[in-house]
Amino acid sequence: MFVSQLSFDEAICKTVSRIARGRVMSYGAVARAAGFPRHARMVSKAMSRSVKPLPWYRVIKSDGTLAFAAGSEAYTNQQNLLAKEGVYIIKGKVVPIAADEDSNLDMLLWGPEE
DNA sequence: CCCTTGACTATCT
DNA sequence: GAGATAGCCAAGG
Q1: In this structure, is the CB of residue A44 within 7 Å of any atom belonging to strand B?
Q2: How far is the CA of A54 from the C1' of B1 (A)?
Q3: Quick check: pTM over 0.85?
Q4: Could you give the C-alpha distances from A48 to A45, A56, A97, A100, A105, in angstroms and in order?
Q5: What is the C-alpha to C-alpha distance for residues A42 and A51, in angstroms, rounded to an integer?
Q6: Residues 6+ away with beta carbon under 8 Å from A63
Q7: What is the pLDDT of residues A31-82, one digit of tens each?
Q8: What is the mean pLDDT of residues A3-28?
Q9: Which of A1, A7, A34, A87 is the most exposed place for a label (fewest CB within 10 A)?
Q10: A73: buried, middle or exposed (CB in 10 Å: 19+, 13-18, 0-12)?
């Protein structure tokens, strides 16, 4: 039956739902943590197919930018949702809450093993 | 089976 | 650091 796809979606969604508030993870990182390396491009599809609500907006690109086209409605929406959790976008890139000189994107990337 | 798409990434200029 | 380039991989036409 349609089992093989379900396990993939399940693993992805489970991982995404584990991302803590105020943190973000890249598509590739999610795929890796879920046990599917090199499947970064499939993560978005899995989330779209999800019936249950997920913190999808906590998933961004590996370079710290949002995946949607800058200026699009979806982009603005995600930006606002993240801002609600204290995650702000400066010059197109995600920045830590207490953005000091010595803080960087790496501090925001989160892994299940943390 | 071939070609295109896309909410991606790593690498090189 | 921005743009180009080449991998990546499942889906759909």
Answers
A1: yes
A2: 37
A3: yes
A4: 5, 9, 28, 35, 25
A5: 16
A6: A93
A7: 999 999 999 999 999 999 999 999 999 999 999 999 999 999 999 999 999 9
A8: 92
A9: A1
A10: exposed
Bridge-partner residues for A109, per DSSP? A24
CA of A47 to C1' of C10 (A): 14
In whole angstroms, B13 C1' to A10 CA is 40
Distance CA A31, CA A16 (A): 9
Which 55-114 positions of A have CB less than 7 A from strand B?
A: 56, 59, 61-63, 67-68
